[in-house]
Amino acid sequence: MEKKLEQLLNSAKLEIEGVQTTKELEDIRLKFLKKNGPLAEILGSLSQLPVELRPTVGKIANQVKIEILELLEVKKSELEKVNESKKLNDWDPTRPGRKLPLGHRHPLTQVLDHIYEIFKNFGFHRSDGPEIESDYYNFLALNFSIDHPARDAHDTFYVSDDLLMRTHTSPIQIRVMQSAQPPFKIIAPGRVYRHEAIDATHHHVFHQVEGFLVDEGVHFGHLKGILDVFVKEFFGQDVETRFRPSFFPFTEPSAEVDISCIFCGGNGCKICKNTGWVEMMGCGMIHPVVLKNCKIDTEKWSGFAFGMGVERIAMFKYRIDDIRMFYQNDLRFLHQF
Ligand code: DAH
Question: Separation of 113 CA from ligand 1 center, angstroms?
Answer without folding.
Answer: 20
